[in-house]
Structure formats: C-alpha cells, structure tokens
Amino acid sequence: MPRTLKFSLGISFALIGLVAVFLALGFAQDTKYKNSVEEVFNATPEQIWTYLIDVESIPNRRQEVISVEIIEKDPQGLVSVWKEIPDMGGYMKFRIGEFVPNVKLEVILFESSYKMLGKWTYELTNKNGNTLVRITEETEIVSPLLRGAFFLAGRDSTLQQELDFLRNFVRERIKN
Q: Which helix (H) or strand (E) holds 168?
C-alpha cells in the first residue's frame, strides 16, 4: 500500500474517531440543564435594566449575532418577540416572559434551528447603589451534537458569556 494512501486512511480514521467521541459525549449529556450565576455590578438596576431590554442593539454587543429581526412589540413599544441570526447560520426566536421593570426579566428561547429551547431569568437587586445580578439558565438541548459542543465549551459557557457582556457594558458605557 502506498505511503500517501496509508497516511490518508490514518487521517480519515482519526477524524472518524474524533467525531465518534464527540457524538458519544453529546449522547452522554443530559438534555436538560439548570444553573445560576450572580455578580455585583457598579451600576444601578435601572442602568442594567436598560441594557437588558435593548434587544435591537444585540448585534453591536454580541459578535456572533449578525442581525436581529423584530417580530413584535408590546403596547409601550418595547420588543417582545424577536429572531436572532447568528454568524454560523440558522436562527433563534425569543420572547419576553415575566417582566418586572428594574427587578426581573425572563427571556424565553421558544424556537431554534439548533434544536435548543430555554429560558434565562435575570433578577436585579439594589445593593447600596450597586446591582446584584442573578442569571438563571434553564435549557433543553435535543441535538447530541450541540450537547457535545456545550460539554467541550463548558455547560455554563452561556451564563459566563452573559456575565462578560454585562461586565463590558458596565466598564465601557457607564461613567462613574
């Protein structure tokens, strides 16, 4: 057998093995996930709230989202249903659930091309002029491929990313 053919077969089997391991990791993970993180930010609840409900600026804050399509607004003109288009293709549709201004916001992922559904709850508590933000994620991922990706990235990666976005907002946008 020629040397290049052996090399090609070796690479092919290695790649097939990696895909098999990736799928096995995905199948081994629970489809449902729930976790919370919290942090105190040097900002008022009103400032954090304004950031959270500004759906139209998501593409400016999150590099992976190339556009947001507004589907519905409530009677006060706030976005209540929207569709995010990420740079990897596909889509995710969200709607606002529970809504208590400056206190609690639920963001519900109700349809996704990634076979993922979920809810993120943001709870804001005033702490002497600062804000304690608690974010709770409750998701269900049907796709074993996506579960494998989340396992490798860290199952709490979305929560950690949300905290990073808030840190950046407070650091860059809020003048003390």
A: helix 157-173
User: If you search the block for the tokens 């990696």, which residue do you land on?
Assistant: 18
- Residues facing residue 82 across a β-bridge: 70, 94
> Token digits for 126?
């005033």
The token duo for 120 is: 């993120």
CA-to-CA distance for 118 and 113, rounded, in angstroms?
A: 13
> CA 51, CA 58: separation in Å to the nearest integer?
10
Return d(Cα 116, Cα 139) in angstroms, integer. Answer: 7
3-class state of residue 161 by DSSP: helix
* DSSP letter for each residue of 44-72: -HHHHHHHHH-GGGHHHH-TTEEEEEEEE
Q: Is the pLDDT of residue 62 over 80?
A: yes
For 36-46, what is each residue's pLDDT tens digit? 999 999 999 99
Cβ neighbours for 27, distance < 8 A, ≥ 6 positions apart: 144, 147
Would residue 119 be called left, alpha or beta, if left means φ above 0 and alpha means ψ between -120 and 50 degrees? beta
Residue 23 identity (one-letter amino acid): L
